[in-house]
Specification:
The protein is built from 2 helices and 7 strands. By secondary structure, it is of the alpha/beta class. It has one domain (4-134): Glucose Oxidase, domain 1 (3-Layer(bba) Sandwich). Strand 3, helix 1 (64-74) and strand 4 form a beta-alpha-beta unit. The longest helix is centred in the C-terminal third of the chain and has 12 residues, at 88-99. The two termini are 16 Å apart.
Length: 135
C-alpha cells in the first residue's frame, strides 16, 4: 500500500497496533513508558513503543506534540505513525525532535478503511510511503 508521507523520519518495522478509537496523547499516553494510560480507551494498557501505530484520530490538545517529543526522547515512540487525518499539533513533536537531532519515526497518512488489514501483523513503513506486511 502507498501512503502519503506527512513527516519524514526513519523507516520503521514493528507489530501493528491499530487503535479502535481516537486518543488524546496528553493524559492518554504515559510518556515515560509509552503505555496507553486513558482508562476509557479501548486499548488501555497497550504499549505504543516500538509498534507501528495506526491512529484513527486524535483528541486535541496543544500538549500532544510535547508528549510525542517526550516519547521520542525517552526511546518510547512508535516505530512509525500511520494517521487517518493529519494532525499538525501532534506531528509538530516529530518536527521538533528531528530539529533537535533525535532519530524520529516516519509519519504517514492512509485511509482508515485499510487500517484493519494490518491488525495483528508485523508491518514495515518505508520512507517512500510504503506500508507493507512482513513476515
Amino acid at each position: 500500500m502507498k501512503a502519503d508521507v506527512l513527516v519524514e523520519g526513519e523507516a520503521g518495522t514493528g507489530e501493528a497496533l491499530v487503535l479502535t478509537a481516537p486518543i488524546s496523547f496528553w493524559g492518554g499516553v504515559e510518556p515515560a513508558t509509552g503505555r496507553i494510560a486513558d482508562v476509557r480507551h479501548p486499548e488501555h494498557g497497550q504499549c505504543i513503543a516500538g509498534h507501528v501505530l495506526f491512529l484513527p484520530g486524535t483528541i486535541g490538545s496543544s500538549s500532544a506534540s510535547a508528549v510525542l517529543l517526550e516519547l521520542v526522547h525517552a526511546g518510547k515512540a512508535p516505530a512509525a505513525l500511520v494517521l487517518h487525518e493529519p494532525d499538525a499539533i501532534l506531528l509538530l513533536g516529530l518536527v521538533v525532535a528531528r530539529e533537535m537531532g533525535w532519530a524520529t519515526p516516519v509519519a504517514m497518512r492512509l485511509d482508515r478503511e485499510t487500517f484493519g488489514s494490518y491488525a495483528g501483523s508485523r508491518v514495515h513503513v518505508g520512507t517512500d510511503g510504503t506500508v507493507v506486511i512482513v513476515n
